[in-house]
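SAMPLE LOG
Freezer: B-3
Tube label: C17
Construct: single chain, 622 aa
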Amino acid sequence: MTENDKSRNTDLTKQKIRERYKGVSEDVLDVIPATPHEDFYKSEAHKRVAVYARVSTDDPNQTSSYELQKNHYEDFVNRRANWELVDIYADEGISGTSLQHRDNFLRMIEDCRAGKIDLIVTKSVSRFARNIIDCIGYVRQLKAENPPIGVFFETENIFTLDENSEMSLSFIATLAQEESHTKSEIMNSSIEMRFKRGIFLTPKLLGYDLDENGMLVINEEEAKTVRLIFFSYLYGYTSQQIANALTDLERLTKRGNDTWSSGSVLQILQNERYCGDVLARKTFTPNYLNHKPKKNNHERNQYRQKGHHEAIISREDFFAVQKLIRNARYRNKGYFPEMQVVKSGYLKGYVVVHPKWAGFSVQDYYLASSSVLDGVAQIPSQKQEVHAEKGAIDLRGYELVRSQFLSASGHITVSISPTKLLFNKTALMKIPDTKKIELLVYPEKKTIAVRKALPNSRFSLEWSRHTEKGISPKIISGSAFIPTLYSLFSWNQSVQYKITGTVHKFAEESILVFHADEATLSIDKLDCDQEEIEEIGFEVEKQTNKRRRRYTAYPKEWADSFGDKYYDTQSKEQSLTSENKPEELEYEHTTYSSDEGNVTSPNQAANAIKDILEDLGANDEQ
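STRUCTURE (predicted):
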């Protein structure tokens, strides 16, 4: 087909289209008119009308606002002969930014869906909802009902069944939401300024009353209940046992209830105000739309004032209780244990890890370690100078390739997750004939040491299985103590780390040493999120073997080098090892005594409980 033929065909096609779209004469068409749109102001159809009212606080002064709205809309509906008032749906003391707790609003929507309502009347868009998604969403849902249900906003003169109403409604709803946002920011700013000046919120608290200046003063009768709770927990009773005893004793809560729960007891045990301190902003509300509080993990400023008011419980007892509570989460029982720290030898300053105690904090490890160092760290804070011997090759400027970059075969490794750790078989072979070990931590240098446990050691961990087929690694459960190690090493709590270690020999004994700052990540390839890994300062290795189940991620700072300077590495190794000083590997450790030394003992707690019960007139059995 020639170009001319193609052109003629195109022209014919266009001509046919033009002829077709000329249409036919209106005389040959019968037009069936649509039902006219309802005029809100002129409609005479019978309407079942619901009125929605909301006041944002439950302040008694707001009662007048509610009553005025109620009376106004009763008259508003009664003035129209064709309107029938179904109900006035009202929420008091509820924010409009969320549907949470807006029970009457939700009841009204359900009545609409049940066919009980034809029209909703409300004062303004902000009364209906201050959340644009809720506002537009529910308006559209009601409009989609059969027959459609309209909402009339009196102040803005908007009727949602009008075709052109949604643009105006969206604009005004956006302004209402932004107004709430502004009020929220002003409130947060006001709270921040109060906290900065030590002006704290003082809610009602069992054991205290408020004086004329709003300060907490001890209520001695209520304080007996508080002391009974703390001493009972220090003695070893559970929160549920304490709650049962308080219920039997008919002791009252601050609200006047005589029935206690485990949760109400724990709230008292964890409230720092009982030791005289105030910690402000333990929670905050990140989203002004849903008002859901969130625990403040340093996302917002916190303010603590010690000695803010007279204490009912000593600070030592209070913090001992907090450690007991943390430990109870792992089903570990027993009175407050003491930290053990090696006082001499090459492990001087190392703190023995208590495998069943979750109560020790990062600060506890640092204080225990420094208590035996006299200000001198066993691992030098400054690098020792190591020079090439006469006649030897000078290796200054050279780097010793990191073992993590080489084949893992033959390396000593430990894999640590937030709940467990596992040594490889090579590690087991370096301390032969050993079923149980002790873990020790040097907090300043973030170093872990492993040594053979002494017989009957209270700190031993079983790290291997011995069968007819030989020895194999055993997973060590560490949900009690590992989270604290993660915090001490500044590790991310959601990933698994792997550390390559070294062995150090002392006569007939050996220890393993692992440096936390040399850890890599061990990542399941199914869960590998490249961006998340990069956010915590690591890079995932390039994969050449697609069959591997796990990936390795390395610290980003390793990208610019092969390893440490040769003589820096030698200096570090020399500072930790000694082949000729067997006496340097000491097993003896000493108890670290801190302020916890003043913690009420079990016998003292028992006597205090007895005195309080006698004062309350209870018999000894209670």
